[in-house]
Amino acid sequence: MEKIEQPFQIERGFSEDHRGSVEFYNDIDLSYFKRFYVVRNPKQGTVRAWHGHKNEGKLIKVTEGNFLIGAVKIDNWDSPNRDLELELYEVNTDTGLLYIPPGYANGAMNLANDSSIMYFSTAHLDDSIEDDYRFDSKFWDPWTARGGVVFE
To answer: What pLDDT score does 145 carry?
Structure first.
């Protein structure tokens, strides 16, 4: 996969007929991704933030409900600037995929009850743990204005 510098969204393919529907992403090379995990938030407004990696990218798919996803390019991993520009995406089951490249921290808040989100990671777990940076969930705070509940 070519080096990607900015988050971007990937539109979904969709087909429907009398048998049902098919959602597809035929242009994605999944060999770049090493693992995936699913997060389920039963209560609307649950915030999970901020988690970043210098070397690991994430591909995000909402599988149920909808989420506000934030991404911020980190300028200094030991002491990031609180005034960095946030990129915000409202993502649901119909909006396709969102890719967050290495060098970013990301966070998410579900905008509906019983929402779930799947993360595909470009790193194996052992490598991810060595490249793990966490920041307080309110360090950059697009959540409170949207009714978010931050659990410390």
So the answer is: 85
What pTM was computed for the model? 0.89
Q: For the segment 45-98, what is each residue's pLDDT rounded down to a tens digit?
A: 999 999 999 999 999 999 999 999 999 999 999 999 999 999 999 999 999 999
pLDDT at residue 4 tops 80 = no
Q: What's the CA gap between 40 and 22, in Å, rounded?
A: 23
Residue 120's H or E segment, with its range, is: strand 115-121
CATH 3.40.50.300 fits 8-150, yes or no: no
Q: Which two tokens stand for residue 127?
A: 């490598």
Decide: 91 and 37 in contact? Cβ < 8 Å: no
Q: Find the radius of gyration of the CA atoms of the chain.
A: 16
Confidence of residue 1 (pLDDT cuts 50, 70, 90): low
What are the domain boundaries of the chain?
8-150
The vertex-11 CA angle with 24 and 143, nearest 5°, equals 115
Angstrom CA distances, 70 to 29, 104, 110, 138, stand at 24, 10, 12, 12
Closest C-alpha among 4, 150, 23, 141 to residue 82: 141
